[in-house]
Write a structure and sequence with these properties.
Radius of gyration: 45 Å
Structural class: mainly alpha
Shape: rod-shaped
Number of helices: 11
Length: 350
């Protein structure tokens, strides 16, 4: 399976670029991976409109990647007119490709920030609700503590039901004294005792109400804490990148840590534009680099030029030879081939 895929790869590369040395294969492979990623981005952006747009924009990625190399091949082969026309068309397709990548990148970055903002708003809301309920609980606890400090510890040891029984006895005693003659002082004392008992009952019930509020609020706080613990805080890599860029712009541009509104918009737009430019020109640049590492008659272009120079004594016109890439064997083989080519006409004439 791998052998078959390797044959397909080498056959395709040879058909499109000719024989390449290892460095050329590296750039082709890197360009293919870059092109695949660029095509996926264009496809996803186009799919927001329709399936046809998605397929069309993905094909545009392929045109912009290999089109400039094709125009270069036409120019080198002498078809300069059609090469210029191809280059002009490539510029138009590159503009379309850039628009696709700019839209996809800006949309994805904006969506990333918006998603994090919405999620973090929910997170902050849950945290604030938990804090507010905790503050209310603390308020109830302080009220209960103040109530106990004001009225004494007896409010926690005496029950309202026990005092109600005493209240019933006090009312009965007053009624019995009232049935007798001359009970003014005794009735007044009994009434005072009854009122004191009633006041204690009211005090205890007030304390009980505060205790119930504390208990109920504690249950609410526990519930809100559980909810707050399940709400995720989302970190946005894009937002952090934007903040980093803005800090650099503000520090170096303003001498402060605060960026202006214009700088904020310009910085975020520039970040998206640079990524779009990389996605637009990256694949074509890799394929263009690969074209500089073609083999000629089994040798690199540089080796062929060096051999021609050694055999004829005159370098090829406007050729730049990179001697670091040439071996002695390469030069000798190419030199022998050139000498044999020149000797054939002489032998035929004799």
């Amino acid at each position: 399976m791998l052998s078959r895929l390797g044959k397909i790869y080498h056959g395709t590369v040879q058909a499109l670029f000719g024989e390449l040395e290892p460095t050329g294969h590296f750039w082709v492979a890197l360009g293919a991976v870059t092109l695949g990623a660029a095509a996926v981005m264009s496809f996803k952006f186009g799919s927001e409109v329709s399936g046809a747009h998605a397929a069309f924009l993905a094909c545009i990625s392929g045109i912009t990647a290999y089109g400039p190399h094709t125009a270069q091949e036409m120019w080198d082969s002498g078809r300069k007119g059609i090469a210029v026309v191809a280059a002009v068309f490539c510029m138009g397709f590159l503009a379309i490709e850039f628009g696709s990548h700019a839209g996809y990148t800006a949309g994805l970055r904006g969506s990333n920030v918006e998603t994090a903002t919405v999620q973090n708003s929910k997170y902050d809301g849950a945290q604030d609700t938990a804090k507010e309920n905790k503050a209310l609980l603390e308020s109830f606890k302080r009220q209960l503590a103040d109530f106990k400090a004001k009225n004494g510890e007896w409010v926690t040891t005496v029950s309202a039901d026990a005092l109600r029984a005493q209240l019933d006895s006090a009312n009965l005693a007053i009624k019995l004294e009232a049935a007798k003659k001359g009970c003014k002082e005794k009735c007044l004392a009994r009434t005072k005792e009854r009122d004191e008992i009633a006041a204690k009952i009211a005090t205890i019930e007030a304390g009980n109400d505060l205790a119930k509020k504390v208990e109920a609020q504690q249950a609410i706080v526990d519930k809100k804490r559980d909810v707050a613990a399940t709400v995720e805080h989302k970190s946005s890599a894009v937002d952090h990148q934007n903040k980093f860029f803005l800090q650099q712009v503000a520090i170096w541009g303003n001498g402060s840590t605060e960026a202006s509104q214009f700088q904020q918009v310009a910085t975020m737009a520039t970040a998206a534009m640079m990524m779009a430019i990389a996605g637009t020109f990256g694949p074509g640049l890799c394929f263009w680099f690969a074209g500089f590492f073609k083999r000629r008659n089994g040798l690199t272009k540089q080796a062929s030029q060096a051999a021609a120079t050694s055999a004829t004594g005159a370098p090829e016109s406007s050729s730049v030879v990179n001697l670091s890439r040439i071996t002695v064997g390469d030069i000798n083989r190419e030199k022998l081939r050139l000498l044999l080519d020149r000797s054939q006409p002489t032998a035929l004439a004799a």
